[in-house]
Amino acid sequence: MEMLWLWWRTSLFAVIIAAVATARPYRILLDTDVDSDDFFAMLYLLKLNKSEFDLQAITINTNEWSDGGHSVNHIYDILYMMGRDDVAVGVGGEGGILEDGTIQPNVGGYIPIIDQGSGTAGPCRYRQTIPVGAGGRLYKDTNFGYRKSFLPQGSRRYSPLEQPTAQQVLIKKISDGPISLFVIGAHTNIAIFLMTNPHLKKNIEHIYIMGGGVNSKNPNGGNHGNLYTCFKSNPYAEFNFFGDPFAAYQVIHSGIPVTLVPLDATNTIPITQNFFEEFERNQHTYEAQYVFKTLKMVRDTWFDNHFYESCFMWDSFMSGVSTSIMRNLHKRNGENEFAEMEYMNITVITSNKPYGISDGSNTLFDGRSVPKFNLSKNGVHSGHVQTGIQDPFCFQSNGIGKCKDGYTEKVSGPDSVRVLLATRAKQNRDNSSSLDREFFVSFLKVLNQPQNQGRFNFTSQFPYYKEVLYKPDFKGEELGKTVVFDMDMSAGDFLALFYLLKVPVKTINLKAILVTPTGWANAATIDVIYDLLHMMGRDDIIVGLGDPFGLNQSDPNNPSVGSCKYLQAIPHGSGGLLDSDTLFGLARDLPRSPRRYTAENSVEFGAPRNTDHPQLRQPLALEVWKSVVKSIDIGSKITILTNGPLTTLAKILLADANASSIIQDVFILGGHIDYTRHDNGNVINVPSNKYAEMNMFLDPFAAKVVFDSVLDVTLIPLSMQRKVCLFPHIIKKLDFENKTSEAHFSQRLLTRMYQLQQRNHRYQHMDTFLGEILGAVILTTDQRTLNPTFEAKPLNVEATGDTSRDGQIIVDPKQRKSIKVLKRFDHLSYYDVFADRLADAKQSAVIGSFNEQKRIWSTPQIRTEIKS
Ligand SMILES: *[C@@H]1O[C@H](CO)[C@@H](O)[C@H](O)[C@H]1NC(C)=O
Ligand SMILES: *[C@@H]1O[C@H](CO)[C@@H](O)[C@H](O)[C@H]1NC(C)=O
Ligand SMILES: *[C@@H]1O[C@H](CO)[C@@H](O)[C@H](O)[C@H]1NC(C)=O
Ligand SMILES: *[C@@H]1O[C@H](CO)[C@@H](O)[C@H](O)[C@H]1NC(C)=O
Ligand SMILES: *[C@@H]1O[C@H](CO)[C@@H](O)[C@H](O)[C@H]1NC(C)=O
Ligand SMILES: *[C@@H]1O[C@H](CO)[C@@H](O)[C@H](O)[C@H]1NC(C)=O
Ligand SMILES: *[C@@H]1O[C@H](CO)[C@@H](O)[C@H](O)[C@H]1NC(C)=O
Ligand SMILES: *[C@@H]1O[C@H](CO)[C@@H](O)[C@H](O)[C@H]1NC(C)=O
Ligand SMILES: [Ca+2]
Ligand SMILES: [Ca+2]
Fold first, then answer.
1. Which of 156, 169, 337, 736 stands the most exposed, by the fewest C-beta atoms within 10 Å?
2. Contact yes or no for 193/174 (Cβ under 8 A)
3. Per DSSP, what are the bridge partners of residue 57?
4. For the whole model, what pTM was predicted?
5. Average pLDDT in the 695-702 region?
6. How open is the CA angle 651-655-657, to the nearest 5 degrees?
7. What start and end residues bound the annotated signal peptide (predicted)?
């Protein structure tokens, strides 16, 4: 009897185990390029029942639509809203691929495999098809402005050298057990992982991909692909595959089962007006609100008048199709609720026929006796590889491009792979509904369901949230000379800005900031400037965003895209854009300004249509310039300090014939002159160019326009900046009691930069940023303090298009005009001058930090008075 009972109990136990095993959650890792559509996909996954689908990790692909620093914080915000701080997030990495093909650990995925060298600086062969500014990365990095206005902020954030890398996260999560990969960006991260960890492939059950286009026809023009900025050279590719065709090939051909949701299927699920309106009526959760807001801004800023026909559910549709297939795995042919499926044999084109040539376009073969990665000499990878939007190889006289890089072509034979492929979206089974696709119903249902709901948005995170603008009242005060600060947003520029804000207004009247995004940060970093101004109680200072391309760098046929000929000298990863974008991870500690970058726009300013709040539109540099000119008294003039490339100033000179007559003088931080053989410039990633300085190099044509103008120019050259680059000195000087908030923040920033410099060679050049404060100090201190002396020299800037010489400055006696050059100053007092200024209680921060703001927004109090 007892034996029988025991037997009964164990078999019941076995039955329970079996039930649990089939109902196991599917572990999912999502690799994303952080486009808007990616958030729709991500939130859809996060809303599903976690005991069915468990999103374990997100790795960020930084080849295309967004930048690393902005992306990682953006994803942290989403996960925080959704109560999912447990989801691992990986971005970047400093490893490279050696000349012999050895893939080092932690390759960052910033650069496609074919161009990946040893660092994170490099060209933009494929990425140049994506707009850098409005309509592209600027919109994605800021989520049209909603990232800061809507998403709550938790404690996770990017932090230099501490952020888990994409490869670390992939290795960890795939080692932990069976997992499915969802890939909704370019394939660099996943390909690098597969190439370096073949022994872990067995843990990857399946790879689901949004990408490619096999029998697809783009509704606008009938091309296979969707590279709308480059149909004339490549009408075949789809963006995700084009971002790194060689990587996509590696993934598709990895032997792991692949399901593709290509353009064939996504082209059949356009975001219709009916769906849009139904969504507008159904926003019952924060995440639904957030997605709708974003989608609406995508619509309102859409480049043509065919949004409802030409914007599709891409990544979100893929997340629906894939999870539905996973629920029906017992069926053999990918049967699912949302899409018709078919098996097809395809490949990914990575180079163009004829194969086996060597024409300088293909770094995997050119100039090598053994091709990189041991590729076959006359194989599919050995042809011409598209070099850019204007690659002459790709053009044909009929106007239809012939390059196929990134195309998922239907092929047969040994070099083809059988994949399961979605061919079209299924009709809504309920034919009385206004939603014509089954997936629309699911998407709205899932986003609005009460399960796994977002906890709050930014304004509801804090019960006493209030937007306050701090504007000082200078009435009755005597104001000093009008100054406009033109910065490229490197860490040193932010320190210089603190300094300028502390100089008494009776000495200088800082009226406006021009942001030049052709240097150390991208345009989205403009938000950090707003935050700093808010902290310092200077929401009155207007900020103008400059053009994202240097002179002669945008594409003549399509100015929203272009080359990165000079900008490629700046690393994407550590010590480069990743850190500049986030102010070395500290930008999130600044209080949040109600002012922020927004994609809001109006017809009046050339937008295709008005958005809801055109008054919030971000002013452009030229508009800000004009408004400063208008605001000053007749007869008075403007002083300009430039701390970055001279792009914005040159464009002002070219656009406004009166500008030079209203500019008193210009102080330019940059340029390297009077060097000797051992005194190199600082463009370290272009070794052939020994003597250029970064600000000149990044836009040599602009520098030439400014140098050749009639302006009264004073140069603060590299040799002078190098006299004031001792971190320990300046950090120590800032170490006084009762620090002002700005001194405290500056000291933290400098300390962090100094520690990074000591810890890792990617941060060797940190002291370059320290010297950037010098321009602001020289401009605003009187003769007695630093005792500066200047000499006049006839100078010429090299600007011919040759990157091994461009940006160098030559003393040229034939030059009729002379430029004042800072020759000497008391550099020992410099640190005191800076520290004393920041210590001064006058013109100090109005609100010290985000933490202080959180305290105010969490406690009931009347706090309307404004310090000044
Ligand atoms: C989630 O799935 C589990 C296991 O299938 C089930 O027990 C639970 O009720 C589901 N939760 C919801 C909210 O549907
Ligand atoms: C946050 O959510 C609340 C409540 O749904 C809403 O009223 C508010 O507008 C949202 N905040 C933003 C910035 O959209
Ligand atoms: C390349 O191929 C050669 C000859 O087949 C082989 O000896 C060598 O190990 C291979 N190298 C790599 C990196 O696979
Ligand atoms: C399709 O690809 C598979 C490999 O995935 C191959 O075995 C098969 O022969 C191919 N079929 C055709 C018709 O080429
Ligand atoms: C909708 O479907 C029902 C049942 O399949 C069918 O009887 C009806 O004619 C359909 N209506 C339309 C408008 O297609
Ligand atoms: C660069 O642009 C300027 C102004 O747009 C033009 O005058 C000049 O010819 C261009 N130079 C080159 C090398 O394209
Ligand atoms: C330049 O100045 C003249 C004279 O003050 C004025 O008439 C003209 O409109 C100005 N041009 C621009 C572009 O501002
Ligand atoms: C710092 O502040 C405290 C409290 O406000 C004050 O007692 C102290 O004297 C201050 N110290 C200095 C050096 O100003
Ligand atoms: Ca994507
Ligand atoms: Ca700078």
1. 736
2. yes
3. 29, 88
4. 0.94
5. 98
6. 120
7. 1-23
